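Reopening this one. Same input as before:
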Amino acid sequence: MLLTLTLREVERATPRAAIVRLALGGRQFDYAAGQAVLFGRSGQADRRPYSLATSPAECRDRDELELLVGLDAVGQTGPHLGTLTAGMSVDVEGPVGSFTFPPAPAENRFLFVAGGTGIAPLRAMLHEALARPAPTQISVIYSARTPNEFAYGPELRALAAAGRLSLWQTVTREAEEHWDGAQGRIALGHLRSMLQDTETLCFLCGPHALVREISPLLEQLGIAPERVRVEEWK
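Same output, byte for byte:
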Protein backbone atom coordinates (compact mmCIF):
# COMPACT_ATOMS: atom_id res chain seq x y z
CA MET A 1 0.00 0.00 0.00
CA LEU A 2 1.33 3.43 -0.98
CA LEU A 3 -0.04 6.45 0.87
CA THR A 4 0.75 10.14 0.60
CA LEU A 5 0.48 11.57 4.11
CA THR A 6 1.00 14.88 5.86
CA LEU A 7 3.83 15.17 8.33
CA ARG A 8 2.07 16.21 11.53
CA GLU A 9 4.99 16.73 13.90
CA VAL A 10 8.76 16.37 14.21
CA GLU A 11 10.17 15.99 17.72
CA ARG A 12 13.87 15.73 18.45
CA ALA A 13 14.35 12.54 20.47
CA THR A 14 18.15 12.54 20.74
CA PRO A 15 21.01 14.37 19.00
CA ARG A 16 20.95 11.57 16.41
CA ALA A 17 17.26 10.74 16.06
CA ALA A 18 13.89 12.44 15.59
CA ILE A 19 10.38 11.20 16.27
CA VAL A 20 8.23 11.78 13.18
CA ARG A 21 4.43 11.61 13.35
CA LEU A 22 2.39 11.28 10.16
CA ALA A 23 -1.34 12.02 10.01
CA LEU A 24 -3.39 9.17 8.53
CA GLY A 25 -6.43 11.37 7.96
CA GLY A 26 -8.87 8.59 8.77
CA ARG A 27 -7.29 6.06 6.41
CA GLN A 28 -6.78 2.50 7.58
CA PHE A 29 -3.23 1.18 7.80
CA ASP A 30 -2.93 -2.37 9.12
CA TYR A 31 0.40 -3.73 10.35
CA ALA A 32 1.92 -5.93 13.04
CA ALA A 33 4.01 -4.54 15.89
CA GLY A 34 7.64 -4.65 14.77
CA GLN A 35 7.03 -3.98 11.08
CA ALA A 36 8.40 -1.05 9.08
CA VAL A 37 7.41 1.24 6.22
CA LEU A 38 9.33 2.64 3.27
CA PHE A 39 9.43 6.39 3.81
CA GLY A 40 10.47 9.30 1.60
CA ARG A 41 9.54 12.70 0.23
CA SER A 42 6.34 12.73 -1.78
CA GLY A 43 6.73 11.99 -5.47
CA GLN A 44 10.26 10.62 -5.44
CA ALA A 45 11.25 6.99 -5.94
CA ASP A 46 13.84 6.84 -3.15
CA ARG A 47 12.09 5.50 -0.06
CA ARG A 48 13.92 3.80 2.82
CA PRO A 49 12.75 1.51 5.64
CA TYR A 50 11.89 2.86 9.08
CA SER A 51 10.28 0.85 11.85
CA LEU A 52 6.91 1.86 13.24
CA ALA A 53 7.37 2.85 16.87
CA THR A 54 3.80 2.44 18.14
CA SER A 55 1.47 -0.52 18.39
CA PRO A 56 -1.32 -0.96 15.82
CA ALA A 57 -3.94 -0.10 18.47
CA GLU A 58 -2.20 3.21 19.23
CA CYS A 59 -1.97 3.94 15.52
CA ARG A 60 -5.75 3.58 15.21
CA ASP A 61 -6.45 5.60 18.36
CA ARG A 62 -4.18 8.48 17.35
CA ASP A 63 -4.91 8.31 13.60
CA GLU A 64 -1.18 8.59 12.94
CA LEU A 65 2.00 6.66 12.24
CA GLU A 66 5.08 7.25 14.38
CA LEU A 67 8.64 6.65 13.19
CA LEU A 68 12.06 7.11 14.75
CA VAL A 69 14.29 8.62 12.07
CA GLY A 70 18.06 8.50 12.43
CA LEU A 71 20.06 11.68 11.90
CA ASP A 72 23.67 12.22 10.91
CA ALA A 73 26.35 13.88 13.04
CA VAL A 74 25.04 17.35 12.21
CA GLY A 75 21.39 16.46 12.77
CA GLN A 76 20.33 15.96 9.15
CA THR A 77 18.39 13.17 7.44
CA GLY A 78 19.46 11.65 4.14
CA PRO A 79 18.60 13.16 0.73
CA HIS A 80 15.51 10.92 0.45
CA LEU A 81 13.90 13.06 3.17
CA GLY A 82 15.70 16.38 3.18
CA THR A 83 14.58 18.81 5.86
CA LEU A 84 11.57 17.46 7.72
CA THR A 85 8.96 20.11 8.51
CA ALA A 86 5.39 19.94 9.77
CA GLY A 87 2.88 20.14 6.93
CA MET A 88 5.06 18.63 4.22
CA SER A 89 3.81 15.71 2.11
CA VAL A 90 5.57 12.36 2.36
CA ASP A 91 5.07 8.94 0.82
CA VAL A 92 4.72 5.81 2.93
CA GLU A 93 4.72 2.30 1.46
CA GLY A 94 4.12 -0.90 3.39
CA PRO A 95 4.02 -2.43 5.81
CA VAL A 96 7.18 -4.47 5.29
CA GLY A 97 9.18 -6.94 7.37
CA SER A 98 8.73 -10.22 9.21
CA PHE A 99 10.20 -9.10 12.55
CA THR A 100 6.94 -9.02 14.48
CA PHE A 101 5.39 -9.63 17.87
CA PRO A 102 3.20 -12.76 17.57
CA PRO A 103 -0.55 -12.18 17.80
CA ALA A 104 -1.00 -14.79 20.54
CA PRO A 105 2.37 -15.78 22.04
CA ALA A 106 2.48 -18.89 24.20
CA GLU A 107 5.02 -17.18 26.44
CA ASN A 108 4.18 -14.55 29.06
CA ARG A 109 7.78 -13.50 29.69
CA PHE A 110 9.54 -11.20 27.24
CA LEU A 111 13.04 -9.75 26.87
CA PHE A 112 13.67 -6.82 24.54
CA VAL A 113 17.31 -5.96 23.71
CA ALA A 114 17.85 -2.72 21.76
CA GLY A 115 20.82 -0.85 20.42
CA GLY A 116 20.42 2.81 19.41
CA THR A 117 17.39 3.44 17.17
CA GLY A 118 16.67 -0.29 17.32
CA ILE A 119 14.36 0.66 20.17
CA ALA A 120 11.68 1.75 17.64
CA PRO A 121 10.17 -1.63 16.64
CA LEU A 122 10.77 -2.97 20.16
CA ARG A 123 8.74 -0.08 21.60
CA ALA A 124 5.80 -1.08 19.38
CA MET A 125 6.17 -4.69 20.58
CA LEU A 126 6.59 -3.60 24.18
CA HIS A 127 3.35 -1.63 24.06
CA GLU A 128 1.64 -4.66 22.55
CA ALA A 129 2.95 -6.84 25.39
CA LEU A 130 1.89 -4.31 28.04
CA ALA A 131 -1.65 -4.31 26.63
CA ARG A 132 -2.06 -8.09 26.93
CA PRO A 133 -4.84 -9.20 29.29
CA ALA A 134 -2.69 -12.01 30.70
CA PRO A 135 -0.07 -11.15 33.35
CA THR A 136 3.32 -10.60 31.73
CA GLN A 137 6.90 -10.11 32.88
CA ILE A 138 8.89 -7.76 30.68
CA SER A 139 12.59 -6.91 30.70
CA VAL A 140 14.29 -4.28 28.54
CA ILE A 141 18.03 -3.98 27.93
CA TYR A 142 18.96 -0.82 26.05
CA SER A 143 22.44 0.09 24.81
CA ALA A 144 23.33 3.51 23.40
CA ARG A 145 26.58 5.28 22.60
CA THR A 146 26.08 8.10 25.09
CA PRO A 147 23.57 8.95 27.85
CA ASN A 148 21.67 11.44 25.68
CA GLU A 149 21.07 8.91 22.90
CA PHE A 150 18.39 6.83 24.63
CA ALA A 151 15.31 7.52 22.51
CA TYR A 152 12.13 7.09 24.57
CA GLY A 153 14.34 6.94 27.66
CA PRO A 154 11.99 8.93 29.95
CA GLU A 155 9.06 6.73 28.97
CA LEU A 156 10.97 3.53 29.66
CA ARG A 157 12.21 4.79 33.00
CA ALA A 158 8.67 5.80 33.98
CA LEU A 159 7.37 2.33 33.12
CA ALA A 160 10.17 0.79 35.16
CA ALA A 161 9.43 3.09 38.13
CA ALA A 162 5.78 2.03 37.95
CA GLY A 163 6.82 -1.62 38.14
CA ARG A 164 5.55 -2.48 34.67
CA LEU A 165 8.93 -3.64 33.39
CA SER A 166 12.55 -4.17 34.41
CA LEU A 167 15.00 -1.83 32.68
CA TRP A 168 18.78 -1.91 32.35
CA GLN A 169 20.63 0.73 30.31
CA THR A 170 24.28 0.96 29.37
CA VAL A 171 26.41 3.39 27.36
CA THR A 172 29.23 2.15 25.17
CA ARG A 173 31.31 5.33 24.97
CA GLU A 174 32.83 7.41 27.73
CA ALA A 175 30.12 9.68 29.08
CA GLU A 176 31.00 13.35 28.83
CA GLU A 177 27.88 14.37 30.77
CA HIS A 178 26.75 13.04 34.15
CA TRP A 179 25.86 9.35 34.00
CA ASP A 180 25.63 7.08 37.02
CA GLY A 181 24.39 4.05 35.09
CA ALA A 182 26.25 1.15 33.52
CA GLN A 183 29.01 1.52 30.94
CA GLY A 184 30.23 -1.01 28.40
CA ARG A 185 28.77 -3.58 26.06
CA ILE A 186 26.02 -5.99 27.02
CA ALA A 187 27.56 -9.12 28.52
CA LEU A 188 26.44 -12.57 29.66
CA GLY A 189 25.88 -11.50 33.26
CA HIS A 190 23.62 -8.63 32.24
CA LEU A 191 21.43 -10.95 30.19
CA ARG A 192 21.32 -13.52 32.97
CA SER A 193 20.15 -10.93 35.50
CA MET A 194 17.33 -9.72 33.22
CA LEU A 195 16.03 -13.09 32.04
CA GLN A 196 13.05 -14.52 33.88
CA ASP A 197 13.62 -18.13 32.72
CA THR A 198 14.50 -20.14 29.61
CA GLU A 199 10.94 -19.88 28.30
CA THR A 200 11.32 -16.14 27.79
CA LEU A 201 10.61 -14.90 24.26
CA CYS A 202 13.49 -12.61 23.21
CA PHE A 203 13.58 -9.81 20.64
CA LEU A 204 16.85 -8.21 19.49
CA CYS A 205 17.14 -5.12 17.31
CA GLY A 206 20.15 -2.95 16.61
CA PRO A 207 23.50 -2.85 14.83
CA HIS A 208 24.85 -6.09 13.40
CA ALA A 209 27.63 -6.28 16.01
CA LEU A 210 25.16 -6.16 18.89
CA VAL A 211 22.88 -8.83 17.44
CA ARG A 212 25.85 -11.03 16.52
CA GLU A 213 27.13 -10.90 20.11
CA ILE A 214 23.82 -11.29 21.96
CA SER A 215 22.33 -14.26 20.11
CA PRO A 216 25.00 -16.81 21.18
CA LEU A 217 24.95 -15.46 24.74
CA LEU A 218 21.23 -16.19 24.96
CA GLU A 219 21.92 -19.69 23.67
CA GLN A 220 24.50 -20.14 26.45
CA LEU A 221 21.78 -19.20 28.94
CA GLY A 222 19.52 -21.95 27.63
CA ILE A 223 17.23 -19.93 25.35
CA ALA A 224 16.20 -22.07 22.37
CA PRO A 225 16.87 -20.50 18.94
CA GLU A 226 13.16 -20.40 18.11
CA ARG A 227 12.63 -18.07 21.08
CA VAL A 228 15.08 -15.48 19.74
CA ARG A 229 13.72 -13.06 17.12
CA VAL A 230 16.22 -10.77 15.39
CA GLU A 231 16.25 -7.56 13.36
CA GLU A 232 19.62 -6.05 12.47
CA TRP A 233 21.36 -3.61 10.18
CA LYS A 234 24.97 -2.81 9.31
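So the earlier flakiness isn't reproducible anymore. For the record, The CA atoms of residues 94 and 212 lie 27 Å apart.
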